[in-house]
User: Which sequence fits this backbone?
């Protein structure tokens, strides 16, 4: 819509229901083995989910660009199979980034902040498979990259 502005929209459908329905643990650490005498079977039964992302990049000049984005990533695990080994949280995520070229060298910087939606799982929902409790997490991921291009 504006010179040097790029807009992007992406929809990703993950077929989580096609993954394993159960996972069997085998603890090799002696500390865990003393508490868990037999292999533990985790029930998954995850649901398919659709992730929606959009973002923008603006080129300040030929050597510098800035980026911003957002994505929504719904949790695939139902409450009745939620467990602490695979904490499945719905995330609203904000991203920021920038790139700068120095001749054939390129430096990229990015920040991603995942804002987790709190999940309260009642013990009445998880009598057989899940682990009741309050699940929440926020994640801050920072990245720095450097590259070299052999093209002129």
Assistant:
């Amino acid at each position: 819509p504006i010179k040097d502005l790029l807009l992007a929209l992406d929809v990703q459908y993950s077929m989580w229901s096609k993954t394993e329905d159960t996972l069997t643990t085998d603890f090799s650490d002696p500390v865990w083995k003393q508490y868990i005498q037999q292999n533990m079977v985790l029930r998954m039964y995850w649901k398919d989910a659709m992730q929606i992302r959009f973002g923008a990049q603006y080129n300040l000049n030929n050597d510098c660009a800035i980026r911003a984005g957002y994505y929504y990533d719904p949790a695939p695990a139902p409450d009745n199979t939620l467990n602490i080994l695979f904490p499945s949280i719905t995330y609203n995520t904000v991203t920021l980034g920038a790139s700068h070229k120095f001749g054939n060298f390129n430096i990229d910087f990015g920040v991603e902040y995942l804002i987790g939606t709190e999940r309260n799982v009642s013990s009445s929902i998880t009598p057989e498979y899940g682990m009741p409790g309050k699940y929440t997490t926020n994640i801050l991921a920072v990245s720095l990259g450097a590259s070299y291009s052999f093209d002129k």
Observations:
- The beta strands are 5-14, 22-24, 41-43, 49-59, 64-73, 91-102, 105-116, 119-121, 133-135, 138-148.
- The chain has a mean pLDDT of 89.
- The chain has one helix and ten strands.
